Amino acid sequence: MIYFDNNATTPIDPRVKEKIKEVLELFGNPSSLYPIGKKVRDLIEEAREEVASFIGAKREEIFFTSSGTEANNWAIKGVIEANPEKDSIIVSSIEHPSIIDLCKYLEKKFKVSYIPVDRYGVVDIDFIEKNINEKTAIVSVMHANNEIGTIQPVIEISEVCKNKRVLFHSDAVQTLGKIKVNVDELGVDLLSGSSHKIYGPKGVGFLYIRKGTPIYPIIHGEQEKKMRGGTENVIGIIALGKAISLLKEEKEKNQKVIKELSKKLREELKKIDGIHFNGHPEKRLDSTISISIEGIDGEALLMALATKDIYVSTGSACSEGKEGPSHVLKAIGLSDELAESTIRISIGKFNTPDCVNEFLKTFEKMVKELRAIG
Ligand code: PLP
Q1: Which of 27, 112, 173, 230 is exposed most, by the fewest CB atoms within 10 A?
Q2: For ligand 1, is residue 171 a contact (CB within 6 Å)?
Q3: In terms of C-beta density within 10 A (0-12 exposed, 13-18 middle, 19 or more buried), how is residue 266 classed?
Q4: pTM reported for the whole predicted model
Q5: pLDDT tens-digit readout, 137-168
């Protein structure tokens, strides 16, 4: 199998699997006072410390959630609820559906401004400056985009927000472990992460909340200092902690491998006629290659590759099954035709030079065949 859909999800690292097997034996409720509860509680706190230290936060600023999606929903809904005097929010037009769909819903009650992006997918900071005011509850701009890999000028955006005393959230689901994520350097008040994009299991994520940020819970209950109710996903949280500890140890090594594979893929893909690269030429994640291929239906190519056990995506995994071309590709100005001719190759730490060579061979052949059929 050649798996080039690591932005959709990553395989669980075998060492994380081992950790999961170990903790399956621990059934105590972390809220219980007796020792088997305390043991589990301690492991959760160790995982919290791993996450916090990885992003330059304090342990008490990390709150575990069921996903990146929940973290994104919580950041925006929770801030709005805690700041009833505010009446508007500003988000980029290329956010993940967990933000965009929420904002569409919130439009019933709130003014939502969608920041346009240029043809490379970089947000227009002037737009933020023009639209932000004392009534803005929150600005949310993702650290890097899941479909085209463009990295946003998060530091500059946070300066604009700070000057206006407006809270700033960034979705770092696609950047953790790939580029530096440090909450103080980025200047964020809130930041989302997800375990299954970093070789951990699905169904667990976290929200970083800077100390003192006015935010309400969206799931009420005793756990997570009453900020996120629900008996903890103990296995998921501990596995997330392990996945993060591996990122810490192997970040440079993984980044180097991915950079080399990405370089080779790009160089070879460039040689094929009628291929357009999407995203910023430099300010982008090495791991994400989005290409539009003239004369090809992206979905047909994806299915043809899948018959050879090669896996890529047409856009974002989460948009699979949605009608029409991706909102991200539309926002960067692609025609419907080119947007539908787009595939995303996303590289992960388990890919090898052999995967790249094999992929390129099959890819070229299939593009030729599909073009011949017309
Ligand atoms: N944000 C981004 C940028 C993503 O790519 C994804 C998943 O594709 C999410 C949020 C959602 O994370 P989760 O799958 O944990 O809900």
Answers
A1: 27
A2: yes
A3: middle
A4: 0.97
A5: 999 999 999 999 999 999 999 999 999 999 99
